[in-house]
Specification:
The chain is 47% helix and 16% strand. It is α/β, with parallel strands linked by helices. The chain has 15 helices and 10 strands. It folds into 2 domains: 182 residues, D-Maltodextrin-Binding Protein, domain 2; 94 residues, Osmoprotection protein (prox), domain 2 (D-Maltodextrin-Binding Protein, domain 2, 3-Layer(aba) Sandwich), CATH 3.40.190.
Length: 299
């Protein structure tokens, strides 16, 4: 019953989120291009980065749709024409959206993704921004030291005594918990809790859970003294951040391609962590953080 209710409410959120992007919506109306982002801090930053770059380089007005939802919500919105662009992670699109078997080589994943998104959805996958944000299985620093744990294989020896806390999407995706649990034989003292992504770090620090799935570029990992477990069996595919844009939109505004492509390779993983920390740790405004970053890059 709990699983049914969780799926029901996610479905409700999906319908509401996509409906909010419908033509005539009063939110952010009047723009030339609609840029969305998923529902966590890094995506807030990347969505604003995309929007500011488009406005600066093309003169087009951008409607921003921050915190639209997870990958499946954003994908449904873009293929239905409710939004024009957002930043996705290649491994997420390849395994989660396309249901393809995970491939460890980043270039192979990108080229295959580009081909299939073109054929199936008339979507353009533009070059990576330069960093990868993979799933990160995270434990408290004190536990890593006390049990001498560095890898997921080592952690699997203790998970029967632990509680897991994961976002809904990670629990449901084949490249998320189901496959991870099979590969590493992870078993917990009770079924993992479905948690809001904004609360998982607090829950870990307060010892409500013992293992969480975060993102490798999260600014809170170092700040809170947490430890990312090594994926020693190379379960997770590459997750390079890449812009996804409707081909119809690129045809209508050809100048968009060059404007967005100019961001390719401009953000390292360390820089992304710093940007995340400025927003989450220092509580700075996303627009200011993005504006300063673009200036330092000469963009």
């Amino acid at each position: 019953m709990k699983r049914f209710l969780a799926i029901f409410w996610v479905s409700v959120v999906l319908v509401i989120a996509i409906a909010s992007c419908a033509p005539g919506s009063p939110v952010g109306s009047g723009g030339d291009v609609i840029v969305a982002s998923k529902d966590f801090t890094e995506q807030d930053i990347l969505g604003e980065l995309l929007a500011q770059q488009i406005e600066a380089k093309t003169g087009l007005k951008v409607d921003r749709r921050p915190r639209l939802g997870g990958s499946f919500v954003c994908h449904q919105a873009i293929i239905s024409g409710k939004i024009d662009a957002y930043i996705e992670y290649t491994g997420t699109a390849f395994t989660g959206i396309l249901k393809q078997k995970a491939i460890p080589d980043a270039e192979t994943v990108y080229q295959r993704l580009k081909q299939l998104y073109n054929q199936k959805f008339q979507l353009e996958v533009l070059p990576s921004l330069g960093f990868e944000n993979t799933f990160a299985m995270i434990i408290r620093g004190e536990d890593a030291r006390n049990y001498n744990i560095q890898t997921l294989s080592q952690a699997a020896q203790y998970t029967r005594q632990w509680r897991g806390g994961f976002g809904y999407e990670f629990l449901e995706r084949e490249d998320g918990f189901p496959g991870l649990a099979r590969v590493y034989k992870l078993e917990f003292s009770r079924p993992p809790q479905i948690m809001d992504l904004g609360l998982i770090y607090r829950a870990l620090i307060q010892k409500q859970v013992d293992l969480i799935a975060g993102n490798s570029t999260d600014g809170q990992i170092a700040r809170l003294g947490l430890v990312v477990l090594q994926d020693d069996k190379r379960y997770f595919p590459p997750y390079e951040a890449a812009p996804i844009v409707r081909q119809e939109t690129l045809g209508k505004y050809p100048q968009l391609r060059a404007a967005i492509a100019s961001l390719a390779g401009k953000i390292s993983a360390d820089e992304m962590r710093q940007l995340n920390y400025q927003v989450e740790g220092e509580l700075r405004d996303v627009k200011d953080v993005v504006r300063e970053f673009l200036q330092t890059k000469g963009l």
